[in-house]
Write a structure and sequence with these properties.
Layout (H helix, E strand, L loop, with lengths): L3 E3 L4 E3 L6 H10 L1 H7 L10 H17 L4 H4 L2 H4 L7 E7 L3 H9 L3 E11 L5 E10 H6 L2
Antiparallel strand pairs: 1-2, 3-5, 4-5
């Protein structure tokens, strides 16, 4: 079970309950921006105790192997498995930051779905799908 991925500048690991105060600070300081793009932000802010409980439950699922999607979202970790041939990122067409991340990782802009999903405010939004194939990942800088 892969529990930690580390590079020269980054460590990626599953959250722990003791990270709750740091997570709360990060969420609270970005709540306005988060609410524009992610539905769960509408239910924030949460207490440190509530976040600690959620992180504990997430950690239990992660350790048990039920949330492998966390690691699969990391391109290099995902492509370490031969069965993975392509990754996709789905995001709102207007979400420039998510698009920038996709581009920086070498994903190609693909199909756009018009009026595919509802925003938190009840209006329809367009979604774009970014794709990265195994071959493209091997040639990215």
């Amino acid at each position: 079970m892969l529990e930690r991925i580390q590079s020269e500048r980054l460590v990626i690991r599953c959250w722990r309950p003791e990270d709750a105060a740091l997570l709360k600070d990060a969420i609270d300081s970005s709540l306005g921006q988060l609410r524009e793009w992610v539905p769960w932000a509408m239910d924030e802010p949460s207490s440190v105790q509530t976040l600690a409980a959620r992180l504990g439950a997430m950690r239990a699922r992660f350790v048990a192997g039920h949330d492998w999607a966390y690691a699969a979202a990391l391109c290099d970790a995902a492509f370490a498995y031969r069965a993975v041939e392509r990754l996709e990122i789905h995001c709102d067409v207007e979400n420039a930051r998510s698009a920038a991340v996709a581009q920086r990782l070498g994903f190609a802009r693909g199909r756009e779905f018009r009026q595919q999903a509802l925003t938190l405010r009840g209006s329809h939004r367009n979604t774009v799908v970014w794709t990265l194939s195994r071959g493209a990942a091997l040639t990215r800088p």
